[in-house]
Amino acid sequence: MKSPRILIVEDEHALARALAATVEHAGASCDIAASAARAHQLLAANRQSYAAMILDIGLPDQNGLCFLASLGEEFDLPTIVITAHGEIQNNITARKLGVLEFFQKPVDFDAFSRSLRAVVQSAGSTAGASTPPRVETGAYIGAARSMRQVFQQIAHACASDEPVLVRGETGTGKSHTARLIQTYGLRSHEQAVTLVAGPSTSIAELDASLVAATGGALILEDIGQFSDTVQAELIRQIELRSRDGFLRLIATSSDDLYQAVRAGRLRSELFYRLQILEVPLPPLRHRMDDLPALLAYFLGQLRPGRHIRVSEPALERLFAHNWPGNLRELHNVVAFALTVSTEATVIDPPHLPSYLPRQPQSGQAGRLPAPLLSELNAWLDQYFEATPQPAYRDLELRLEAALIEQLLERYEGKLAPMASALQANRSTLRRKLRGPEEQE
Question: Which CATH number belongs to the domain containing residue 188 in this structure?
Answer without folding.
Answer: 3.40.50.300
